[in-house]
Amino acid sequence: MVVEQQKKNKKRFALFLATCDSEFVKKAYGGYFNVFVSAFGEEGEQWDLFRVVDGDFPDEKDLDSYDGFIISGSPHDAFADADWIVKLCSLCQKLDEMEKKVLGICFGHQIITRVKGGKIGRARQGPDMGLRTITIARDTEKLGLYFGDEVPASLAIVKCHQDEVLELPDSATVLASSEVCQVEMFSIGDHLLCIQGHPEYNKEILFEIVDRVLNMKLMEQEFADKAKSTMESAEPDKDLWQKLCKNFLKGQI
């Protein structure tokens, strides 16, 4: 009886992985799932992995047993109509109706935009890769709930995307912006938080992606060098991003 109660009280989260593990990530971290759990998980929690990019989804009847969900980044377009993307959109619609906590990152940020009636497409100023500083909105009380007493004026985050939010859903509140992207972060209600950058990424993950894309001849050497140069003497605000995401997912403040 005690064991059953402990299991019932254990917080449960799910990662919807929308990308395949690279050989580097497998070797260095054991897969992207471990990268996310290391960034946002805590002892005593249960985290489940669903490789949605491969058509692996939870049963709808099990959704209510989760406290929160994360939708990862992806090399795929969030505005595409591949079967798994359409199914993911349908699932997100259901989670929105249930008012379940969903953290959308990069591709996930854009998927939630699509589901809620916004517009996504190619980034107006072109692809963005590297460490960027984004400006935090000053006129929202919501971030105070996630950061606590002191909300930072800006945050550094790793960016890696070619698409962006072009038009926000009507119900969305912009929480951060930058010179190259008007919608870096937004929320809808108390249950949807969307971030264009990658709060889970570090320098070595970014560099490996840059090298891989360069080797595939999908970017120029100059672009790759500029992306890497942004992290020569700077780091993302990892601790603050983790605080924000954890407090959103888990309602710790």
TrEMBL record:
<dbReference type="Pfam" id="PF00117">
    <property type="entry name" value="GATase"/>
</dbReference>
<keyword id="KW-0645">Protease</keyword>
<feature type="domain" description="Glutamine amidotransferase">
    <location>
        <begin position="34"/>
        <end position="202"/>
    </location>
</feature>
<dbReference type="GO" id="GO:0006508">
    <property type="term" value="P:proteolysis"/>
</dbReference>
<dbReference type="GO" id="GO:0019760">
    <property type="term" value="P:glucosinolate metabolic process"/>
</dbReference>
<comment type="pathway">
    <text>Secondary metabolite biosynthesis.</text>
</comment>
<dbReference type="InterPro" id="IPR017926">
    <property type="entry name" value="GATASE"/>
</dbReference>
<keyword id="KW-0378">Hydrolase</keyword>
<dbReference type="InterPro" id="IPR044992">
    <property type="entry name" value="ChyE-like"/>
</dbReference>
<dbReference type="GO" id="GO:0008233">
    <property type="term" value="F:peptidase activity"/>
</dbReference>
<comment type="similarity">
    <text>Belongs to the peptidase C26 family.</text>
</comment>
<dbReference type="InterPro" id="IPR029062">
    <property type="entry name" value="Class_I_gatase-like"/>
</dbReference>
<dbReference type="GO" id="GO:0005829">
    <property type="term" value="C:cytosol"/>
</dbReference>
<keyword id="KW-0963">Cytoplasm</keyword>
<protein>
    <recommendedName>
        <fullName>Glutamine amidotransferase domain-containing protein</fullName>
    </recommendedName>
</protein>
